Amino acid sequence: MTKNIGMLLLAIYLILVGITTLFHVAIGAIVMGVLALVTGILILVGK
Predict the structure, then answer these.
(1) What is the pLDDT along the chain (47 residues), one digit of tens a residue?
(2) C-alpha distances in angstroms, 42 versus 16, 19, 24, 35?
(3) Distance between CA atoms of residues 4 and 41, nearest Å
């Protein structure tokens, strides 16, 4: 596992995007947007 929480959230985000694309599972756009925003900020900050 990675100690960088930003990279961990990025991995989770990419997995969720892949699942929603392949299986047409509906995950709220707000949830995905917030997850992407938080992930991007944490990666930029370096946490």
Answers:
(1) 557 788 888 888 888 888 787 777 777 778 888 888 888 888 888 76
(2) 18, 23, 28, 11
(3) 12
Q: Spell out the residues 6+ positions from residue 47 whose beta carbon is closer than 8 angstroms to its own.
A: 4, 5, 6
Tokens of 33: 């947007």
Determine the Cα–Cα distance for residues 39 and 5; give it in Å rounded to an integer: 8
Give residue limits of the domains in the chain. 5-45
Work out the number of other CB atoms within 10 angstroms of the CB of residue 9.
19
